[in-house]
Specification:
Alpha-Beta Plaits; 2 domains; 4 helices; disordered C terminus; 22% strand; Arc Repressor Mutant, subunit A; alpha+beta; 131 residues
């Protein structure tokens, strides 16, 4: 579904990108709207799929994850179900920053990977950096 975005929609998306927990009242105030039209805009953007979900950005340093690691992994078993199960597990793990890319041969590129996950056959670090 394609929808046209006006200046207010773009501003609304920018505010939610900065703080997804912002209340409708706070959004409305920042956008100089009343709450009902603001809520309707948010709802329309969600229904159109422009807002997929609202998330919290965690403090990696406070969680003991100061280093971000990008790694290539191979699963021990092939098959779409295993791939989907691995992706799901990585999304649930506080150390799993998500699957970045599939190379089509069960090789996955991960961010913030947790090497203790059992289905990993091989973990090869590509590079790491401190933020």
């Amino acid at each position: 579904m394609h929808i046209e975005l006006d200046r207010v929609d773009r501003s609304l998306l920018a505010l939610l990108q900065e703080d997804a927990g912002m209340t409708t009242a706070a959004l409305a105030e920042r956008l100089s709207l009343s709450q009902s039209p603001c809520w309707r805009r948010v709802n329309r953007l969600e229904q159109a799929g422009l807002i997929q979900r609202r998330v919290a950005v965690l403090n990696r340093e406070a969680l003991g994850m100061e280093i971000v690691v990008f790694a290539t992994v191979n699963l021990t078993q092939s098959g779409r179900q295993n791939l989907l199960a691995f992706e799901s597990e990585m999304e649930r793990s506080p150390r799993g920053g998500g699957v970045l890319h599939h190379d089509g041969h069960l090789g996955l590129h991960l961010k913030n990977c947790d090497e203790r996950y059992p289905p990993l056959r091989r973990l090869r670090s590509q590079y790491a950096y401190c933020q």
